[in-house]
Write a structure and sequence with these properties.
The structure holds two protein chains of two kinds. Chain A is mainly alpha-helical. Helix content of chain A is 46%, strand content 0%. Classes of the chains: A mainly alpha, B mainly beta. The interface between A and B is large, with 62 and 118 residues.
């Protein structure tokens, strides 16, 4: 990877990160208010096998993949 | 044979439960670059894991049946995901999937009002396609084994890191990959910033060799335009922010970058060469005494690099017992494919131990800039061309529901049934003569059935 590309990547990652952190500092809950957020059904991925299965189905049938994570690759199906 | 259109399952999964995957160990220079880039932070979307309160081992198992109509692809898949929870929130995750694929898949050739004979991808024999029928290769048969492993652990009070590997093997395709990620919590753990990357190397080893791009399909036994095995490398980067908005609302935004290079064509896909006036595929005469194609077909050819950018956002909202999970993804790439995906599910509790979860997903994409339904004999050969319907312009809809419950002993059981359909069009400017009266774009209708069983030891 060239130095120029690396520099661009630093910008891409750092700037949004800093913006997000500062913008989000006023949001959220206190530690004792996490009862609902701690529930299994409030996790971002509640069923990892189902999520992986779907990623793979759509990876093999559509031209897009990933987004939530690294999606569905590693097969000769696409 | 291989896998031209499969549906496999699982894998690459790893730490999805925590929201972001990742894993690995990798060349120093890249780690360093990434570390610098992330400045100070990054984290998986990791939610706190209550390791000490849970069983040491957790197992999720799944049986998938995926079935396309008209005798197309069928997949039976068994998946196992095991998680070992250690003290201090360290987690080992192991995944194993076995897929068994059968059925037929579109080869890319156009329908015609006479019988067409096509050489199989192996170059060993031919098959016939009935008049006015979408050409399908029915020798679609493969078994795929996929394995992945990951390790996740806190790194100090605010950081969390993970590394992992993935491997899969089909008859004519081998994948191996590594991945890694790190995350950092801010604002009383209400904000988590994460960064991950994955590298993979795939080997494509079709029987008979990979065909040279845009060269003719030849008679049985003539492999003169075949090359040896090919490889594909993929680099994925993911940057995400997860934010607790309120006691009931959680939001995640991810940007991901993916760079694929190497052999990105499908060695089993072809295009018909047609008369520029009638649009009918031009006939061809096999060498006397030898079986071969009855018409003129060229093997497809795609660029050897593809860069994709995705923006993904997801929200989870708790509404007095019900949970709404909604996500949107925008993807764009340098093949000029743009796609939008909206996914929504709503989990309703039924009594204390069971639930039902309706799910809808809408997807739409534009065609790749080298997508061609057919190639006209009257024009110069393009640099790249593919008639693969998955690179075309189409919409897709998924609708279904999951029903699940917790047993008296704390095991989770669920059934899911969904219907998936695709409907697309060939750009009208590409249709010639008789093609206007034919169904030139293969739709797709499929059933997805899942049985899942989860338990702890």
């Amino acid at each position: 990877m060239s130095n120029k590309k690396l520099y661009s990547m630093k910008l891409i990652f750092c700037v949004p990160a800093l913006l997000a952190i500062s913008a989000c500092s006023s949001l959220g809950v206190e530690p004792w208010e996490r009862d609902v957020l701690a529930k299994d059904e409030m996790q971002l991925v509640t069923d990892p096998i189902e999520a992986a299965t779907d990623d793979h189905i759509y990876f093999s049938k559509e031209a897009s993949s990933g987004g939530r994570g690294f999606g569905g690759g590693g097969c000769g199906c696409n | 044979m291989a896998v031209a259109d499969s549906v496999v399952a699982v894998v690459a999964v790893i730490n999805q439960k925590e929201g972001s995957p990742v894993i690995k160990k990798k060349p120093k220079s890249v780690s360093k670059a990434l570390a610098t880039a992330t400045c100070a932070l990054l984290g998986t979307t990791a939610m706190p894991v209550q390791a000490q309160e849970e069983p040491a081992w957790e197992f999720d198992t799944s049986l998938l049946y995926y079935s396309e109509d008209d005798g197309r692809v069928q997949d039976v898949s068994i998946a196992l995901l095991a998680r070992r929870l250690f003290a201090d929130d360290k987690i080992l995750t192991l995944g194993l999937t076995v897929d068994s694929l059968t059925g037929a898949t579109p080869v890319g050739a156009a329908p015609l009002d006479v019988v067409q004979t096509i050489t199989r991808p192996s170059g060993n024999s031919t098959f016939d396609v009935a008049p006015n029928t979408l050409p399908l290769d029915d020798t679609f048969l493969d078994t795929r084994y996929a394995f992945n492993a990951s390790w996740q652990q806190p790194l100090g009070r605010l950081y969390n890191g993970n590394v992992g590997i993935s491997f899969s093997k089909e008859y004519d395709y081998v994948h191996s990959g590594v991945n890694a990620g790190i995350s950092r919590d801010f604002n009383k753990k209400n904000t988590t910033v994460s960064l991950g990357f994955a590298l993979s190397k795939d080997d494509i080893e079709p029987i008979g060799g990979t065909p040279m791009a845009l060269t003719p399909m030849l008679d049985v036994g003539d492999l003169s335009n075949r090359l040896g095995n090919e490889t594909k490398d993929v680099v994925d980067l993911l940057f995400g922010v997860t934010q607790v908005i309120s006691r009931n609302l959680l939001v995640q935004v991810n940007y991901s970058y993916s760079d694929s290079s190497g052999y990105l064509s499908d060695p089993f896909k072809i295009l018909s060469v047609v008369d520029p006036i009638t649009g009918d595929t031009l006939p061809r005469v096999p060498t006397p005494g030898v079986d071969g194609p009855s018409h003129q077909f060229l093997f497809e050819g795609r660029p050897d690099e593809r860069v994709k950018h995705s923006l993904y956002t997801q929200a989870k909202y708790y509404m007095s017992g019900k949970v709404l999970d909604i996500s949107y993804r925008y993807m764009t790439d340098d093949w000029d494919i743009d796609s939008h995906t909206v996914d929504a599910r709503l989990k309703f509790p039924i009594g204390n131990a069971s639930y039902i979860e309706p799910h809808v997903r809408f997807y739409t994409q534009t065609e790749a800039n080298f997508y061609r339904a057919t190639l006209s004999a009257g024009e110069p050969l393009p640099l790249f061309a593919s008639a693969d319907y998955r690179l075309g312009n189409f919409d897709a809809l998924t609708a279904g529901a999951k029903y699940g419950w917790k047993t008296g002993s704390g095991h989770d059981i669920s059934f899911r049934l969904e219907y998936y359909m695709q409907d697309g069009d060939v750009p009208s400017g590409q249709l010639i003569g008789n093609q206007l009266q034919r169904d030139m774009y293969p739709g797709l209708n499929a059933i997805i059935f899942n049985f899942s069983y989860g338990f702890g030891l």
